Structure formats: C-alpha cells, structure tokens
Amino acid sequence: MSAQSMDQLVSLCKRRGFIFQSADIYGGMKGLYDYGPMGIELKDNIKKAWWSSMIYERDDIEGLEASLISHSIIWKYSGHEETFSDPLVDCKDCKSRMRQDKMADQTKCDKCGSTNITEPRDFNLLFPLNVGPVVDDGSKAYLRAETAQGSYLNFKNVLDSTSRKLPFGIAQVGKSFRNEIMARNFIFRTREFEQMEMQYFIKPGENDKYFKEWKETRYQWWLDQGIKEENIKWHKHDENELIFYANQASDIEYRFPHGFDELEGVHDRTDYDLGSHTKNQADFDIQAKVKVNTHSNTKLNYLDQVTNESYIPFVVETAAGLGRAMIAIMNEAYEEEDLGDGKTRTVMKFKKHLAPIKVAIIPLKKNNEKIMEKCSEIKKSLLKLGIGRVSLENTGNIGKAYRRQDEVGTPICITVDFETLEETPASVTIRDRDTMEQHRVNVADLETYVRNFFL
Ligand code: ATP
Fold first, then answer.
1. What's the rounded mean pLDDT across residues 73-88?
2. What is the 125 CA–ligand 1 centroid distance (Å)?
3. How do residues 379-393 score in pLDDT, each as one tens digit?
4. Which of 110-114, 175-179, 365-369, 408-412 has the lowest mean pLDDT?
5. Do 231 and 306 belong to one domain?
6. Does position 86 have pLDDT exceeding 90, yes or no?
7. Quick check: 64 and 57 in contact, CB under 8 A?
8. What is the mean pLDDT of residues 6-26?
9. Does the beta carbon of 195 sit less than 6 angstroms from any atom of ligand 1?
10. 90 in the Ramachandran plot: left (φ > 0), alpha (ψ -120 to 50) or beta?
11. Closest ligand 1 atom, CA of 319?
C-alpha cells in the first residue's frame, strides 16, 4: 500500500523531519522547501545509489560538478533565453494563474470553470542575477536551469583529461533553478530543485541503440529503488511535445498521489548541444538547427583515432529529479498496518540502502550510566562498518522509540537492557522493522550480524 494522499506524505514529512516549507515561520514561500534531519539522509542515499549506478558500477561515465551561477551566454546559445518558457494564462474572474499546457480544458479556468481567460503569454523560467558590483550586460548571469549545460561545456575538458573514447558519459547531481509559474504538489514542482542528469556522448547514427539501452537501464534503476512496476509507465513524446531538435524522447511517469506524472526523461538530443556551443560550426556537418555561434573559443568535436573521422557527437540524456524521486520512494515505502485491538502503525518500508537511519540503538532505561555506556560502545563499533547513520536514542520509552523509528523507516533497532549488562555472553534484542519480530544476538556477533543484514 502507498499513501492515500499527498497530505498524508506532507504530514509525515513535517512530523518526522523529512521536509519543511521554507521560511515557514514567516508564512512560507511558494515552491521552496528545506530538508530536515531525515530528508537530507534520504536524499543523500538516493544520490549515492544513482551515483554508484552511473559512475562506480560502469566504466564509461565520469562525474562533474559545474557552477550553479552560470554565464548568460550559455543560455543564449542553448536556446533557453528564447524558448525556455511556459504559456501563462490568467482567469479574469477568479484571478487564478495557470500553465495553458497543463489545463484540463484550454478554454476554461481550471479552478472556477470560467471561459473569461486571457490569451497565453510566454513566461521565461530562467532566474537572472547580476555578478559583481556593476550592473550591466557583462555582469548578467543566470542560476542554472539544468545541470546538462555544464556537462556540454566541459565535454572537451573531461575528454582530454580522462583520455576517454566514445561512447562515454558525464554525470552530475546538483541544484537547478526555474521560476516556475505554478509551483505545486509539494516538492513535485519547485523553484529550486536537484537533478540527477547524465549526458552520454555517442557517434551519430548510434542514437537508436543507446536510447533504447538507456531507457531499459533507467527503468530498472527505479525498480531497484523499490518502485513497483504497476506504478511506473513510459510516456513517449508525440510530435507536439518533442522539442524541435530532438529525435525522440520518453518520460518515465510515476503514479504520484496527484496522478501519473514525469519522474525522469530520456532524450535523444542529436548534435544540438555540442553543435550549439562549438567554435567553427561550419567545419562540421551539424544536423540540428543551431544558432550561429560567434563566441565559443573551443571546437567540441571528437576525433576518432582509428578512422580519422572528426564529428560533433550526438547526445542521449537521462534527466531525473531528486525531489520527485523522494516523493515516489516515500510514497512506495509508506504503509499503514493494522496491528489488531484497534491499533495501527505507520511504517516506511524503505529499501535498506535508502533508509535515513540504518540502526537505532535504544537503552531500556533512560540516563542509566552503565546501559548508556554499552549503547555508545555498540554505536562506535557499528559506525566503523560504514553503513550510514547509526542513531542512539536516549528516550527510555521503547514503545515510542519503535514507533518513531518505524515512521522514519529504520530497518533495525537494537535494545540494550539489564540482561545485556548482567549475563555472559552479553546479548541485545534486535527488532526487525518489517516483521516486528524480536530476537537476541550476542554483542560479540553484532558487527557480523549488521554487516550481513546490510550487504
Ligand atoms: P516538467 O514537464 O514536469 O516541467 P521537464 O520536462 O521540464 O519537466 P526536464 O527539463 O526534462 O523536466 O528535467 C528533468 C527532470 O528534472 C524532470 O523529469 C523532473 O524530475 C525534474 N524537474 C524539472 N523541473 C522541476 C521542478 N520545477 N521541480 C522539481 N523537479 C523538476
């Protein structure tokens, strides 16, 4: 079972420290969120899983972290300055503002049903800013709207510094900013968000093959994070949706509490990206319709050492949102279980590698010096395993501690009691999140037990 509504998730996120509205104490600011103690751990674990699948488990992708403040000229040649806009419509009766392309019926206001609506106006999503003390054209920059441009601009730097051969990819995880007209559905559409994007550079003509491969790879990755197959599906961009330079594109859609919507896009982008930013465009047979570039000082071509061919590589991109990943993963993990006797529990059944806290150590008696000493000893030894956060809860109320750990999805709780101190060999109680079964394990075997559990 997943959450019944976004409200259930939003409430759990606040109650247990996953996500808070930004500037909450001043009434909040739309489309901006802060990640709490549990949220940052979960977010970090998702990033790690993605990074591992892209960089560590493969041998053809390199990582990069490009700057967030970016030269305005990047967005001129990428086309974003001109075309990165959404059609904005206002209702003259109820004063609602909406994106025309997301309206249920483009002739009627989504909120009040009135047909008294304005003509659509294009609204650019780039966030401009000025760098340095003088405000003029030369100081104009943008907060980046995607990580991808940084990967295109560094194509030659990465190629030369790693001696890569095609095909190879550049992966980035990081913040992006879009002045969204309709920030909504909790962290689904926000103005500041994180992306996990990978640009795969290939020989022209090999795009069908790699587009298909990357679709399969990315689909499987979501299943590996605990997303059920019945909750994701492909949405192929039709002619109207496809951006003018792309060959083909498909989105992985997830069944969010507000309905099926985009989680990740896989795009076959032709030679548009490197072709737009390269020097001496006329030297190459660029297939995409690109703006004439009079500023770039570097040729972004690839020279095949074997055939001596020189060309502008094509790009297949995979672009996922981290916020959307969090909602999807939390939604999948969310369960409300009937425990009988009118009792229920909320439990987040995260995959172990994603759980914000891996192990919680709970003393049977609060502030008991001997018990706390043992707890600290155990915590230290488990931390050495490098499994992630091991938390010590000095609460003294086992029932409450279990309930709290269930709600943040901690896979195992270890309770240290008086028997631990008195008996030889010393043992502790281990409680499993999913089955709620408890059994005793000798302290001497704990490291091996926990290591095997998280393997
Ligand atoms: P949408 O159609 O929902 O606006 P998009 O097609 O513009 O998304 P891309 O530019 O392909 O999105 O970005 C890649 C991914 O980044 C998206 O699949 C999504 O997961 C995430 N993303 C894009 N915009 C936002 C946003 N405003 N808030 C949160 N995540 C976003």
1. 90
2. 12
3. 999 999 999 999 998
4. 365-369
5. yes
6. no
7. no
8. 94
9. yes
10. beta
11. 14
Pocket flag, ligand 1, residue 146 (CB < 6 Å) = yes
Total residue length of the chain: 455
Question: How does pLDDT run across 144-175, given as a tens digit for each residue?
Answer: 999 999 999 999 999 999 999 999 999 999 99
* pLDDT tens digits, one per residue of 247-294: 999 999 999 999 999 999 999 999 999 999 999 999 999 999 999 999
Residue 349 lies in a domain: no
Gap between the Cα atoms of 397 and 405, Å rounded? 12
Task: Map 273-320 to HEC letters.
Answer: HHHHHCCCHHHCCCCCCCCCCCCCCCCCCEECCCCCCEECCEEEEEEE
The answer as to whether 91 is a domain residue is no
Residues 432 and 375 in one domain: yes
Supply the pLDDT for residue 367.
Answer: 83
Kindly give the number of the ligand 1 atom that is closest to the alpha carbon of 187. 29
Whether the pLDDT of residue 1 is over 70: the answer is: no
Residue to mutate (ligand 1; options 180, 182, 195; most atoms within 8 A of CB): 195
Alpha-carbon distances, residue 373 vs 357, 360, 361, 369, 370 (angstroms): 21, 15, 12, 6, 5
User: Residue 178 corresponds to which tokens in the numbers above?
Assistant: 């879009």
Looking at the structure, tell me whether residues 165 and 219 fall in a common domain: yes
Strands in 148-247 per DSSP E: 168-177, 192-202, 232-236
Does some domain include residue 138? yes
| Cα–Cα dist 225/264, whole Å | 14
Peptide bond into 425 cis (omega under 30): yes
Residue 397, helix vs strand vs coil: coil
CA distance 420 to 426: 5
Q: What is the pLDDT of residue 178?
A: 95
Nearest-atom index, ligand 1, CA of 180: 27
SS3 105: coil
CB under 8 Å to 378, separation ≥6 — which residues?
A: 361, 414, 416, 428, 443, 446
